[in-house]
Amino acid sequence: MTTLAPTAPAFTELDNRRAGTGFGHVLRSEWTKVWSLRSTFWTLLGLVTLTIGLSTLAAWGQTSSLKHMSPGDLAAQDPTNMAMSGLILGQLAIAVLGVLVVCSEYSTGGIKVTFTAVPDRMRVLAAKGVVLAAIATVVGMITAFGAFFAAMPFWAHYDMAAHLGDPGVLRAVLGGGLYVLASGMFGLAIGSVIRHTAGAITTVVGLLFVAPGLTELLPGEWGDQIAKHFTSNAGQRITEVVHSTSQLHPWPGYLTFTLWWVIPLALGAWLIKRRDA
Question: Is the distance from CB of 208 to CB of 92 less than 8 angstroms?
């Protein structure tokens, strides 16, 4: 009587679909993670309420002083850009969400589980970026159009209201939504580099809110160039209808702001591959 020696199981390489780690699976996982964070709802609510509320307040204040302005100052008014002024605070809310999309897993140690389940770290980062971009774009567009329609009645009282059919107005309002997208991706990029929630949020607030104003104090031509190419100083040009000759044009300004998050995100991707989880 002979016995068969046990044979080692044949190892085959599981494809992404069998392993459940294809991009679609990772995308659904990241979508679930984002909406499981309590901070997601509050940051998005902050984005909408801060932007629309501040834009409405700015329109009220600006139109109240119109009767004291000279004809030249009246001609320089940009109601559409003023309607997007609330983004100066709204940008911080979506940027914080961008930070949390990355850093929340690092702070809890959950990123180790994620990278164990999905060894391709770039797939995880790409899924996080796609989910954040989708949320930021949809909510950003809702916020931008909401701020526009909330502000225009104040300008209509003085026959200065902008309309979506006017030259440059629709582009500027859509640009407000695109600016929200870029601000969120900026937060994601900084979070992927720093990986520490408090440090990344501090950096984002400094670069988007504090430092842009300080660059205006830099002397000389080089100071002017730094100021107009610096993060939000450049990005917010996309919401202008009346162009300021001392600033970048709308699309070059937005492209400059895009580089401000694309380059750190590329660095963050490289660091994520090199560092331990």
Answer: yes
Tell me which residue range forms the domain holding 69.
38-274
- Asked whether residue 13 is assigned to any structural domain, the reply reads no
In degrees, rounded to 5, the angle at the alpha carbon of residue 185 between the alpha carbons of residues 270 and 190 is 50
pTM > 0.85: yes or no: yes
The number of domains in the chain is: 1
Quote the distance between the C-alpha of residue 224 and its chain's center.
25
Q: How confident is the model at residue 10 (pLDDT cuts 50, 70, 90)?
A: very low
Q: For the chain, what percent of residues have pLDDT higher than 70?
A: 92
Task: Kindly state whether residue 223 falls inside one of the protein's structural domains.
Answer: yes
